[in-house]
């Protein structure tokens, strides 16, 4: 069942910055993206294992976060009703409220940082007081050199500091007030403590010294450099739209906007410190930052290996983060990491047991089974990419997709559409002939999802009315309008949408027809019965799709002999 929902993600919420095809962005040969069939199957098993786990103690935040990001990737929603995730979130919130030492006085940075990230990703508005309390604790524990560590008398350690960096990043994404100087000093720490060889030691040494380095600590450190530089806008994203940032409308068509609530007066100065979203937030020696990245990447070109024999799952999660942020900043990963995702997927498959847990190879030093599995799942779903987006489905995006004047805001802050049908037509009209990338399509698809549901819920709509309306959507001359419509119809998993999907199987563009075919696989639960085989050229592919359309039509008429098709 979960693999069926996973297809929703592939059709509705695939996010690939700066390019339409995920293949160009992830650049892997075997598993083009997290929606590859094998990846979905492995992720499903891992998520089921974690959902059945008690996730108690220190493992709670990372296990719950992995499950949450799994649902964000494949469902496009935050699983607020998931029993395991809800239980961990409530436990952490209760610990913060009671002043529990495990969160607020824990000498490790891992637990409070991951606790903050989990609460923010789950519901940043509801748990803002608890998030602020944890953030204040982290800031109070940050060393004068910008690092984080186990004890205050240390110069800091690079591993724990990476989780401080990630906590800062997520807090900022969710509009939690944060002075940029804390991210600035943490980035300065990583630059100052880099070794001459280009890598880092676990226990930081000023000036670096002669350090051999390990792949795990190197990934943790270099990923933090790229993440913090991105957060402080010291690096332009070459894989992303030039205008995109957490503070912008994401470069969407003019009447598709992101609703961001105004900051409280007391928070205004901190929000203003991040500027207008178009330039660097802080002053930083660009030459040193560039040299740090260059030396780190050079070390990787000669020292990268996979898998490693110490904490391999931990390494994979840091590697995934490095790959994402480097690709956004530089546009490529280099030849030494050309198969990093493919290799990781194959590794997880090999060492995943029947229960879904990822054990890891015997010669490796492994973490507890649930933590190993959580890190592996975060790797599989490409968590850094999901966490880097503003949270879809939250009130921060409550106004996306609706034209000006069609929304009202209730006293509770909820955004409500007063003209659903009108706003829906405006949304469809917003899809111009200009090139749209998958980030824009994701935002528009989510907006259409809400809009069409409002349209259907207004009064009693007959099946004929709805079918006629859907046919209009998939008959659009505009390619993007048809694509978004098919994504939406597929994600609904509604048998009433089958005639429209069958109609779209005859689309002159093979991409649209393939999306419709995958939508029918999702609705029918027939994932392996009717399989599209790429014939290598457009003409043969269209013939293959025509054959599949006949099979799907026969299947549907056997189930609903009296059905009316759209031909």
Question: How would you portray this structure in words?
Answer:
It is a single chain. With 567 residues, the protein is mainly alpha-helical. Helices cover 55% and strands 1% of the residues. It has 24 helices and two strands. The protein has helices spanning 2-12, 22-26, 37-52, 60-75, 83-97, 101-104, 110-123, 128-141, 158-173, 180-192, 215-231, 268-272, 286-303, 312-330, 340-350, 369-380, 383-387, 420-429, 438-457, 463-474, 479-492, 498-504, 510-524, 538-559; strands at residues 407-409, 415-417. Strands 1-2 form a two-stranded antiparallel sheet. Strand 1 and strand 2 form a beta hairpin. The radius of gyration is 24 Å and the shape is globular. The two termini are 31 Å apart.
Topology:
Layout: H1 2-12, H2 22-26, H3 37-52, H4 60-75, H5 83-97, H6 101-104, H7 110-123, H8 128-141, H9 158-173, H10 180-192, H11 215-231, H12 268-272, H13 286-303, H14 312-330, H15 340-350, H16 369-380, H17 383-387, E1 407-409, E2 415-417, H18 420-429, H19 438-457, H20 463-474, H21 479-492, H22 498-504, H23 510-524, H24 538-559
Antiparallel strand pairs: 1-2
Helix pairs in contact: 1-4, 1-21, 1-23, 3-4, 3-16, 4-5, 4-7, 4-16, 7-8, 7-9, 9-10, 9-11, 10-11, 11-13, 11-14, 14-16, 18-19, 19-21, 20-22, 21-23, 22-23, 23-24
What structural category do the secondary elements indicate?
A: mainly alpha
One letter per element, helices H and strands E, the order comes to: HHHHHHHHHHHHHHHHHEEHHHHHHH
Helix content: 40-55%
Note the main sheet.
2 strands, antiparallel
Using the CA coordinates, give the radius of gyration.
24 Å
Q: What oligomeric assembly is this protein in?
A: single chain
Overall number of strands: 2
Strand order of the largest sheet: 1-2
Total helices: the number is 24
**Low-confidence region ranges:** 1-26, 240-263, 390-422
Instruction: Work out the strand percent.
Output: under 5%
What's the shape? Answer: globular
End-to-end separation in angstroms reads 31 Å
Mean pLDDT: 77
